[in-house]
Amino acid sequence: MRRSRGALWPAAVLVLTMLLMVVGLTAGWESFNGKGFVARVVVYPVLMLVLPVGWWWRHRGRDVEPPWGAFALVMLPFLVDVVGNFLDLYDTVAVWDDVNHLVNWFLLLWGIGLLLFPGPDDVRRPALAVLTVAGAGALLAVLWEVGEWFVFLRAGVEVERLYQDTLGDELLGTTGALLAGVLVAWWRRRTVPTG
Of the N and C termini of the chain, which has fewer Cβ atoms inside 10 Å? Predict the structure, then answer.
């Protein structure tokens, strides 16, 4: 496999995410309390690496440049989430959680979309590409919210507030995924040769 400077982007995102989580936990940051950061230290790197490892496994033995930009996009939402907690933005900026769900799902599904549709020939039917990316995002949003539900329910968050937050987060995540699907379809189709 070729070496590239592009690998620095996902590596930097992964290292910075882990560093902030470890510092926040060992320093006993108040903003990390009740948010499952002990589990996140284990789960986040696994989630950040599952697609790069899967891509590598599928392309092992081939001299193909990995899609470093797509990997960085997939990893970036985890860093944004950790930075938000590290700086206590979830508790001090009223709209942070909502904006986070929209933007993070956009970034995550933009990266996943680039992996699913790596070239212009892969987007012969743009509407299908948009629906695929949006559907993947909706499914991931539901799975994420199930995890959040259990973490916050155990932390004693009021069930009615938790239910409303979950529905809103799923809608925002799906909207971000839909926007990412539109971007991926447009980006890939614009490079299709005409004639």
Answer: C
